[in-house]
Amino acid sequence: MSGADAIAEFMFGDSSETNKRRVYHAKDKLGAPMFKLGGTVCARRSTILAWIESQERAA
Known about the structure:
Layout lengths: L3 H9 L4 H12 L6 E3 L2 E3 L2 H14 L1
Helix pairs in contact: 1-2
């Protein structure tokens, strides 16, 4: 996936401004497995799902 819109849609169900900010927060502060290509934040769906599962186990 590329772009905060697509990642927010995948993770939170919509790409509102709040959810786009949550994507950047997850990347910068929570260690979500995302990377940048140029100025665009990107992620693999499978990697995001694995990260979410690991967060659930840790809780």
